[in-house]
Amino acid sequence: MEDLFQQLYSNGALLVLWGALLFHLILPFPREAHPAMLWHKFAEQLADKVNTTNSYSQSILSGSLAWLLMLLPMLAVLVALKPLVWQPQLFELAFLLLAIDWRNTDKFTAQFVAALAREDKQQAKMLLKPLVNRNTEPLSLLGLGKAGSETLIMSYGRNVIGVLFWYALAGGIGAFFYRMSVELARAWSPSRQQFSPFGIPAIKIVAVLDFVPLRLFAIMISCGQRASACVQLIRQQARSWPLPGPAWLIVSVGAKLELSLGGPAIYAGHKAVRAKLGGRIAPSAIHVAQVQKLLAWRMFAWIVIQSLAMGLIYQGI
Length: 317
Fold this sequence. Notes:
The chain contains twelve helices and four strands, in the order H-H-H-H-H-H-H-H-H-H-H-E-E-E-E-H. The protein has helices at residues 2-10, 12-26, 35-50, 56-81, 88-99, 103-117, 121-128, 141-187, 200-222, 227-237, 244-257, 285-314, and strands at residues 260-262, 265-267, 270-272, 276-278. Strand 2 (265-267) and strand 3 (270-272) form a beta hairpin.
């Protein structure tokens, strides 16, 4: 037993992972004070300056250069700082803490479910609005249930699973880089007309970063009851969604709980035609709560499996 504890202690990567999860559980960053919000605002201001051309090719070039301008200097500074810190594990811990976030998602879910349960559409819209790019004012209770479920799914998928996956591969810097890339893609999402095609490079890069972790998480969700139905619907529906990682994840949750997700959405006053995903049950308050419960348990399973894998790879535990 003493040897096991010694091996765990010497495995800094695992200690950082568990330490970040514990710190985030006890004292999460408030969403309004998170550095990602400042990053998001700066990205919007940069886009106002450089997203000024009507030419498709020039807009793509501007979007690519803006992405490089935002992320490459940040990455260079972080890589240069790492050798200078007195304790590398604390450096890794700090940036993993800045990258990961599920407590704010859980807080949103509790408030959102309560608002839906009492049919308080205005409160539900107010809670949802800061988290999505789509217009929330036209949403009915059914639309709010769908939008809330999709937001919850992608928050767990990207702010937890994607972050943990890239931490395992590239440490705290990799996790933070991934989170900032996601925020940049959200700030410049081409679903809004003013960022199309400017935001296409950012969204494609995130699609590449999402491809493996979100698909692995979708497979984990599909396991167990209704596994064959999940696999069948993923094969049938995933191709109709523009991003492959989110497609698998949303379809797997919709198929698992037989919920109707996707469908048309309004962005900046323009209606976007999106495919319908999942099953046939219209999400209500109880279904959003079921989505949160499903994702939370699968997240815990992911953490256990990743911890075991990191122990075997890094230390031979």
